[in-house]
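Note to self: user wants both folds in one dump. Writing first protein now.
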Amino acid sequence: MTSTTPAAAGQLAGLSATTLLRFATAGSVDDGKSTLVGRLLHDSKSVLTDQLEAVEHASRSRGQEAPDLALLTDGLRAEREQGITIDVAYRYFATPRRRFILADTPGHVQYTRNMVTGASTAELTVVLVDARNGVVEQTRRHAAIAALLRVPHVVLAVNKMDLVDYKEPVFAAIAEEFTAYATELGVPEVTAIPISALVGDNVVEPSATMDWYGGPTVLEHLETVPVSHDLTTCHARLPVQYVIRPQTAEHPDYRGYAGQIAAGTFRVGEPVTVLPSGLTSTVAGIDLLGTPVDVAWTPQSVTLLLADDVDVSRGDLIVPSTDAPATTQDIEATVCHVADQPLAVGQRVLLKHTTRTVKAIVKGIPSRLTLDDLSLHPEPGQLVANDIGRVRVRTAEPLAMDAYADSRRTGSFLLIDPADGTTLAAGMAGDSFAARPAAPAPAAAASPADDDGWDF
């Protein structure tokens, strides 16, 4: 049996943390996100020759003398015709110091939902601001989403400094306003950098025209920012995705529970509890890529074998018995509403949490966030597209859900329309912003009984 010590597991996780950074770009329309990404890829020598030739050809056909680097990410025909980003574009590149997974997200209000998708797994978000316009509503919206999603690092890239004559007071005023707003949201760290993505100032190479700025370039900050996502020390959680029962002559009694470890570490001999049933057993074995091991950690995909023949199925959560979350049917959370149709009190939905999907009813919407001043509009009755608000949901079956502040994987969920499968909202359980307490929940209004299994 292959044995790996917890110390070795931590070392491997630390190695991953120093070599890989997931980050997203965000900002309002025409702030230059795609141009920044294109400049970052181009100047870091991460663009293949045929890609650059295709961009140069497309730019010439549109009457542009210089290559439009935004076309490196805006690949959809509608994006190129309208000159805006519509869908999230993922790019993978590397420098000698670090590997990167980049999500270029749209800036238009209509596509805020895509920004939620792109930032949900990010360890850093680059928020662009047009130096001529300063902080606008969409800037605040993206800062709020970064705070809600607990993105630990935020870079404020004040773009188009060439159009304001590279004036330091313009940059300083925007940086001060944004930092104050982000701090109130609970964002732990903001780094402000003045740039010109079109020209290349402070993107990869330091600017020769902004000698008053002595900080890092965008790429230098991305290469050196300390990223700590060592999930091996978090609460151990394994959402069961599939029960393996070969029932062959070679494996007549094999019963394994397969899934990707969402957080933490599992060890052979460790007492575990299956939720929501509460049944207990002991880890009898761990199979990793067909090989037995003594210990496994996130984000490995494994198969756990238990010492007892307990009832475990897809959607169950296997956790250490000494660190089991409480199960509940009443969930209060902050949601980003991403669907065109509104989300209303009393609405029947499906709630998807890890690998489990259950029926649920929206019992209340205590508040909707006003982004201008971070005030809470009480009891709005419904949330519409791109709204951020608090909801109370009652599920048909108990769920073992962590607070999102403790685990981004097991503290998040989706609300889904049961009629057509449309995703309605992305939810984060527990308190919302780190520096702001959750809105007090008023008494739930009584819901009329119904006769088709949705009154619970």
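First done. Writing the second protein, which came from a different request thread.
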Amino acid sequence: MFFAIKWHYDRGEKGDRRAALRTGGKMAAVFVLVLLCVALVTFVVSRMLGLDLSFP
């Protein structure tokens, strides 16, 4: 009985760790996409306003 309970407990902990890693990966991907979108919008708006963004 002890080993059955321990097996289920250990198995449940693995699932939570995987779910947490998967969620963290999704959040990181969303953050990078949002960061790229903000950079693109900033670049487009600054070009529309006539700012010179070229490197010397």
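Dump finished. Worth passing along: The chain has a mean pLDDT of 86.
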